[in-house]
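Sat 14:20. Reprocessing the chain from the morning session after the first attempt stalled halfway. Input below, unchanged.
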Amino acid sequence: MDILVIARKNRFSPNHIGNDAAILNDVCELLEAKGALIEYCTEDEFLMKEVVGQGVIISMGRSKSLVLRLQKLEAGGKVVLNSAFGVENCFRKNMTQALLARDIPYPKSEVINTSASIDVVFEQLQNGGVWLKRGDFHAIHKEDVSFAASIEEAQGILEEYALREIEEAVVSEHLQGDLVKFYAVRGTDFFYWFYPYEHNHHKYAVYEQINGKLVYNSFDMSRLRETADKAAEVLNVEIYGGDAIISANGSFHIIDLNDWPSFAPCRAEGARAIADRLEEVARLYSTIKDQSNL
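Finished this time. Tokens:
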């Protein structure tokens, strides 16, 4: 196994720089123990490479220039995990539209231009307020995912996005219920879920004040796992994590799904599952390549 590994830029790891680096390092150590030859580089170093000799690339990168180049390499026959097409699908607007189109339980949402008035959308979606999220990318700053209790507050957030040259925002209804996080690796038995506020594992503590205290609504964990895996399949990511809101009646909605999160609460188990999946993919690639050379 000859593998190129690309680390994530710090700016794409808000409040999780160390955790994101740790999971990637752990996976690389496990792959090296399995006999893999690893070349490790940063996003910037990768973009300066004229030639990529490896057939398998492991990437936590998220910059748009990196995603574009990886997509070209994938189109040329290289294997990338997570797929750069999947990473692009996880950008907020793309994710929202894809999950809603495939009937994944997701909050009612609208995409709006940041130069527009939010009045009509707010009235259609507000349920004690709405969530506004930058549409072009993942959350990088705290304000990239913001709650607004009034039209005035929502309009102000929209205008702040426009000042930062964010052209579109996703506006979603607010859902009452328990927040749960999950981590998973498609093609394996690994699925881990927990209540983040119980473990102080969340990027921005203010969200707990909005979501409310945990009441431990009962729900079907196997159905959550099945739905999360279907959402990841729709978005074309294999190493993923996300968040869901569990309602009082046991129903749930996926509110976010990310390519390759930190796996911080379950790093050891997650790293083993990721390494096993990557080894399987790398060996399959080698087999196909050998057969094509016969």
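The chain has ten helices and twelve strands.
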